[in-house]
Amino acid sequence: MMFARTERLLLRPGWPEDWQALFAAINDEGIVCNLARAPWPYTPEAAREFASLPQDPRYPSFFLTLPTDNGSRLVGCCGLGENEGEAELGYWIAREHWGQGYATEAARAVIEIARTLGHRQLYCSHFVDNPASQRVIEKLGFVALGPAVPRYSAGRGEEALCNEYVMDLEPLRQAA
């Protein structure tokens, strides 16, 4: 199992007992409609299933938590997935934590994990009607691939236009 620490967040695997916190954080149509794989309506069963998924060592996913006086609080999720044979960065943040930089902070840590795992490139995308995600992706240094393309969103139940991006993860070579 992988863990990561940023300035404000602990990135850790999800555990089956996290399903209620997950359900409370993601059960918001404004979040789910911007995701490709999460269904809407989001159900307790979907939360139980996601929280119980085994970790893939090449494509880890993380629950983003903030330390509190009595444990931790789930802020969102960030991780790597496989899309058409390529490593893809994905993330979401609970509405009450929007605009605080958590997506960018967590994604930077996951990008470094992807590099450590030996991924050579990392892809990322956002639906065109989600400008907040576009700002995160651009801050991270991803490069746009071209015109928007259709992508299925389980949360929308249909295809929507999506902007795609790539980041080269090859280590920087020092001049000899």
Give a brief description.
The protein is of the alpha+beta class and about 180 residues long.
Helix content: 25-40%
Quick one: overall form?
globular
Number of separate strands:
9
Beta-strand residue percentage: 25-35%
In CATH terms, the superfamily is Gcn5-related N-acetyltransferase (GNAT)
CATH architecture: 3-Layer(aba) Sandwich
Rg, please? 16 Å
H/E order of the elements? EEHHHEEEHEHEEE
Helical segment tally?
A: 5
Q: Tell me the major beta sheet.
A: 5 strands, antiparallel
Number of domains: 1
Q: Which stretches are poorly predicted, pLDDT < 50 over at least 5 residues? A: none
Summarize model confidence as the mean pLDDT.
95
Distance between the termini: 37 Å
The third-level CATH topology is Aminopeptidase
Spatial order of strands in the largest sheet:
1-2-3-4-5
Going by helix content, strand content and strand pairing, the class is: alpha+beta
According to CATH, what is the class?
Alpha Beta
Organism: Alterisphingorhabdus coralli
Family: Belongs to the acetyltransferase family. RimJ subfamily.
GO molecular function, one term: acyltransferase activity, transferring groups other than amino-acyl groups
Keywords: Acyltransferase, Transferase
